[in-house]
Amino acid sequence: MTLSPSLAAEGLGRPPASPWRDELRATLRLSAPLVLINLAQHGLVASNAVLLGRLGAEPIAAGALATSLYLLLFIGGIGLTSSVAPLVAEAIGRAAGRQEEGEVRRTVRAGLWVGFLVTMALMPVLWFTEALLGLLHQDPAAARDAGAYMRVLQWWMFPALAFMVLKGALAALQRPGPPLAVSLTALPLNLALGAFFAFGPPDLGIVGVALGTVVTEFLALGALVGAIRLDRHLHRHRMFARLWQLDAARLARVVRVGLPMGVAGIAEAGLFEAATVAMGTFGTVPLAAHAITLQIAATCFMVPNGIGQAATVRVGRAFGAADQAGLRRAGAVALWLGFGFMVACALVQTLAPHALIGLFLDAEAPGAADVFPVAAGFLIFSALFAISDGVQSVALGALRGLQDTRVPMVIALIGYWGIGVPLGAVLAWGAGMGGRGIWAGFCAGLLAVSVSLVLRWRRLSAAPPRVASAQAEAGRNRA
């Protein structure tokens, strides 16, 4: 097989003197900015939790109810649009020096259309958050505040999904710099705007926190579009050409690859949403402690998530080039990186729980004294499932590079809802463990999913990679 100079330079198929070391460097070089982007984007949610924590235990509990419901649906949209990254990566690996600009443009355009359509479908659901939480027997005051929070937060959906599409395409092009710069700028802006609207002259309270995030995300999307248009290295892709044109064939391909990813994402997010709703039945203190523990766990998770996104690109490029050794190396390196980091996170959560909790809850805030010991107990379980959570995320990213999304979806459904939720319910109510039982169910579900995904990766990566059959689409590249 003849490799293009660009692919050879990236170490996708040439036999370098140290292929494992080269792959480690390439993965770190790509994953580092992706991790920072994820941390900055998650920082929008985490900084909101910090601001809500300054308002007291009840606002942070209401914010947790609204945010968990929002993220449940939003993550499904992310799954659908996340197919942009592996499709662009495969096209670049397959091109081997030929022009791939049409492929990139068509895929990005379809991804943006998917984000728009998902937003239009979900916003009516989010509008009735208060009524939905009432049906789930949540505290009426918390449900009312959560509903007010959501009616502003839901406008975050489209700009956030559009940002994800562009970030995925740029990651596949191995140019994560623009989304990184924008994300790092957006984080302090979100904190400043949220504080201004919540505590400043507008004095909007919980609603002001949501408004700050919406304004920040629209500004971030505009900045990223501007950065792409000004980047001379990206001019040839003309990503925003004819955005109004609906490409049904490419839209169908994005949905075909992304739909199982969206369902798997909803399955995992649904596990946490079910846990949050269940926590609400135990009272405000366990719910607030649960919200803080989730923020800590989610912050740690952003690192293996970024490594998994890098694995999608590295594996996807090797997959497009039919480089079996390269894709196996890419997956193995990413898995070990994710495993090592999450072991370190688990140790920190075990050894310094109160310091971590203090980052999200003011010790002097109303009700904080009751929340601290409960959250510390939850962090023990969070440390236990951290390793499995990180490994499953990286394994899932590697499988997405192979465009294997349907079986991982089934694995997620069985692991989270066939094991995690039932076991958590039995331990919480049947064994009288309360909130700790729900977290124990997390551990079991995530462990089952992690082991199953790693075994599937080992089996698929050992088989000869199928050569991508996108030749039939070459005639449509100029669309």
From TrEMBL:
The keyword Membrane applies. Its main location: membrane. The chain crosses the membrane at residues 34-57, 69-89, 110-133, 153-173, 180-200, 206-230, 333-352, 372-398, 410-431, 437-457. It is found in: Cell inner membrane. Pfam families: MatE. It is a multi-pass membrane protein. Keywords: Antiport, Cell membrane, Ion transport, Membrane, Transmembrane, Transmembrane helix, Transport. The keyword Transmembrane helix applies. It comes from the Bacteria. This is Multidrug-efflux transporter. It comes from Methylorubrum zatmanii.
